[in-house]
Amino acid sequence: MQSTFRNLLVALTLAATFALPAFAATPVNVNKADATTIAKSLDGIGQSKAQAIVAWRQAHGPFKQVEELAKVKGIGKGTLERNRDAIRFSGDLPPPKADAPTKKKMAHGKTKAVAKT
Prior knowledge:
- By secondary structure, the protein is an alpha+beta fold.
- The protein contains four helices and four strands; from the N terminus they run H-E-H-H-H-E-E-E.
- The protein is 39% helix and 10% strand.
- The protein starts with a helix and ends with a strand.
């Protein structure tokens, strides 16, 4: 019985370890998003920290750089580094990478990758 429990615990630990990279942050505009959206988008930011971000923003104005989020109680450098690429201050998505092909919407509604010129 104890061996079965130990094997189950090991299997769950391994599954969690491999699943962690799947919880990557999603781009979010911290100057416009509500607390629920921020909590769902950023890794390590729960509802209470997201509410603190919104409250700080309302009291002090929009954030201008990632490091300003460290002024919010409970948000440290590690959390900011994990989410740096997902934190936006304007717009919702990052600009396309220079080497990535752009997509052109076709008349029938589908998209087609096209080379940049």
